[in-house]
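Figure-free illustration: sequence to structure, shown twice.
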Amino acid sequence: MEFEAGDRDAVGEILHYLGAASREEPGCINYIAHFVEGEVATVLIYEQYVDEVAVEFHRAAPHFEQYANALYKIMRSRVVENLDAVN
């Protein structure tokens, strides 16, 4: 996700709360937001869930609507990549 540089503090605060709440969800293995080094306003969020049901639970959670929608309102662009783990 890319944001305006001036939004960095607000983005960090939103991600702090979104990450904490998301990690408490059933089926969430990991949820970690990162600012990309050297890129003031670029964020990478690494999320892991046990299955698609857990992903849908996450997307329907009240905290997701509150915090993710706040991010969507101020982000400039977003790329989503879904990954298959190598076991």
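We now fold a second protein in the same way, so the two outputs can be compared directly.
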Amino acid sequence: MDQLIMNELNGMAFEQREVFLLKEYGGLSYREIAEVMNINEDLVKSRLFKTRRKLIEKLSKVLK
């Protein structure tokens, strides 16, 4: 499963991939991600939501 996720992430924009990796694999909080990426927390939340939604859509097609 991790390999499928990484394959899909590699096809996404850097900003989306980075937010996801910092949150899910790095365990950082929204605030910490915002500080690392020099963006506001709302943008972190938005990017993470969109990235998760894309992953769900793509992986659901692959796993059917």
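Summary for the second example: The chain has one domain: 2-62.
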